[in-house]
């Protein structure tokens, strides 16, 4: 997939896309392509439009509430132009081979030059090196022919019994599962790729994600939920994970009111930072994967948020009572144990191109807990971005509010154009030294101050020991 500039000062430049990405086009810092800030482009906004790209065939364009709109094939997108069907402003649309769009005096052509592949995905899987296929063995259930639920058929997994449904998402469902020999309860996560088998390079995407899973199996830390094993069957990925029976930070905040105390918030975030620091320095077998940090070592989480920070008691399952002020029945102290779920999993799935177009469409991913750098560069993988998000989670626990004021229809534009709200404005009762440190950690105009999780933790300990 190629984007060719056909007119304007950048005429002749080409941008090739051979992997899942997004890009923001405009005159603002970090835009790719970056348009000139001259008289012929004064009608172009700093952050004008977003391209959501999943080669070889899928690409959508979204106007970012630009002042003058984005012209696609001569028709304007955005700028109060009403969709005659929905009655709303039409901000985005799918782009096809040969389509053209224009910003100021710069026009772009979209070239999609691949043809659908008729490859046999399952046969290619059989030919894959066994070291990255996982160790799960599958069989069709006996009553599969009578399935009328409309849900995907789950196979039987040798050595396990699938139990209850724990939850469902856009691309996944989670079940509790029991190991038949030990009786241990685990979690089974089923991931359904959102790009079809006839998508040209689908097999490469599957093989890439299997390498990601092999990397994730190396994570062994008390603050990270462990991936025990995985497999691929019938067009779906099956992941056996450590089961965490506790609640997440969101539910704890709902139990305790709008926000958490300084002490409780720091107790949680210190363990989050410990998990991040470990993962950021981990040796992995496949060092060239997209979610491996830029030095070829360490894993980038990429989607950290309060909802996937799980909590449990070290000694027993009485976490809710302990956090509510109820003393345990034993004289031993029950402390919070933090468990990060889905470490690097969602980001790897998306980077592999298996999540579809996640930044546009009916239910796009919301950028509530990502910094400006990550909003501009989808494929940016740096430890400091995770540290920024950890600071945003701390901010949320302390205040019950997001880092930015998300108003209007386009949260991406909020991230790109506005600054984080000082934490003292949200909660004046936070100690001044702690508030100043959190604000320092959340600055994302230019560079991010704390590059390492351990450095941020040490700084927090120095102002609130």
Outline the structure in words.
The chain has 465 residues and is of the alpha+beta class. It has three domains: 2-111, Sandwich (Tumour Suppressor Smad4); 121-140 and 154-242, Phosphorylase Kinase, domain 1 (2-Layer Sandwich); 247-463, Transferase(Phosphotransferase) domain 1 (Transferase(Phosphotransferase), domain 1, Orthogonal Bundle), CATH 1.10.510.10. Helix content is 25%, strand content 21%. The chain has twelve helices and 20 strands. A hairpin with a 2-residue loop joins β9 and β10 (106-111). α4 packs antiparallel against α12 (453-463) and α11 runs antiparallel to α12 (453-463). The model is unreliable at 82-87, 144-150 and 315-332 (pLDDT under 50).
List keywords for this structure.
Tumour Suppressor Smad4; Phosphorylase Kinase, domain 1; five-stranded antiparallel β-sheet; 465 residues
Summary of the model, kept short:
The protein is an alpha+beta fold and 465 residues long. The protein contains twelve helices and 20 strands.
Strand content: 15-25%
How many discrete domains? 3
Q: What would CATH call the homologous superfamily of the largest domain?
A: Transferase(Phosphotransferase) domain 1
Arithmetic mean pLDDT: 85
Task: Tell me the overall shape.
Answer: globular
Give the fraction of residues assigned to helices.
10-25%
> What's the tally of helices?
12
CATH-defined topology of the largest domain: Transferase(Phosphotransferase), domain 1
- Counting copies of identical and different chains, the oligomeric state is single chain
């Amino acid at each position: 997939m190629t984007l060719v500039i056909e007119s304007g000062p950048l005429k002749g430049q080409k941008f090739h896309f051979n992997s899942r990405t997004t890009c923001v086009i405009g005159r603002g810092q970090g835009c790719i392509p970056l348009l000139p800030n001259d008289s012929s482009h004064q009608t172009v906004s700093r952050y004008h439009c977003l391209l959501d790209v999943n080669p070889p065939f899928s690409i959508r364009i979204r106007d970012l509430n630009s002042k003058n709109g984005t012209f696609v094939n001569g028709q304007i997108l955005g700028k109060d132009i009403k969709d005659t069907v929905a009655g709303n402003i039409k901000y985005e649309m799918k782009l096809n081979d040969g389509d053209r769009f224009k910003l100021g005096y710069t026009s772009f052509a979209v070239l999609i030059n691949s043809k659908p592949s008729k490859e046999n995905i399952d046969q290619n899987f059989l030919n894959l090196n066994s070291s990255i296929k996982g160790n799960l063995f599958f069989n069709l259930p006996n009553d599969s022919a009578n399935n009328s639920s409309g849900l995907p058929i789950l196979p039987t997994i040798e050595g396990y019994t699938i139990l209850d449904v724990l939850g469902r998402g856009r691309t996944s469902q989670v079940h509790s599962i029991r190991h038949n020999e030990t009786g241990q309860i685990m979690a089974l996560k089923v991931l359904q790729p959102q790009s079809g088998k006839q998508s040209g390079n689908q097999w490469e995407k599957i093989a890439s994600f299997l390498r990601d899973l092999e990397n994730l199996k190396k994570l062994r830390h008390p603050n990270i939920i462990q991936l025990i094993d995985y497999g691929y069957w019938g067009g779906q990925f099956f992941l056996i994970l450590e089961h965490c029976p506790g609640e997440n930070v969101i539910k704890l905040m709902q139990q305790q009111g709008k926000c958490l105390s300084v002490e409780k918030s720091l107790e949680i975030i210190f363990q989050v930072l410990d998990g991040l620091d470990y993962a950021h320095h981990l040796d992995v077998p496949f060092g060239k994967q997209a979610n491996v940090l830029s030095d070829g070592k360490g894993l980038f989480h990429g989607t950290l948020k309060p909802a996937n920070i799980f909590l449990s008691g070290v000694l027993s399952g009485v976490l809710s009572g302990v956090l509510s002020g109820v003393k345990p029945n034993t004289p031993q102290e029950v402390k919070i144990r933090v468990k990060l779920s889905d470490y690097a999993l969602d980001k790897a799935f998306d980077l592999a191109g298996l999540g579809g177009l996640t930044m546009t469409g009916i239910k796009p991913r919301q950028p509530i807990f990502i910094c400006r750098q990550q909003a501009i560069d989808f494929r940016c993988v740096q430890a400091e971005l995770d540290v920024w998000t950890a600071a945003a989670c701390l901010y949320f626990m302390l205040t019950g509010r997001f880092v930015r004021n998300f108003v209007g229809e386009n949260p991406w534009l909020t991230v790109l154009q506005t600054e984080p709200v000082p934490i003292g404005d949200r909660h004046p009762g936070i100690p001044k030294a702690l508030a100043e440190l959190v604000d320092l950690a959340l600055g994302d105009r230019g560079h991010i101050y704390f590059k390492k999780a351990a450095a941020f933790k040490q700084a927090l300990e120095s102002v609130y020991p």
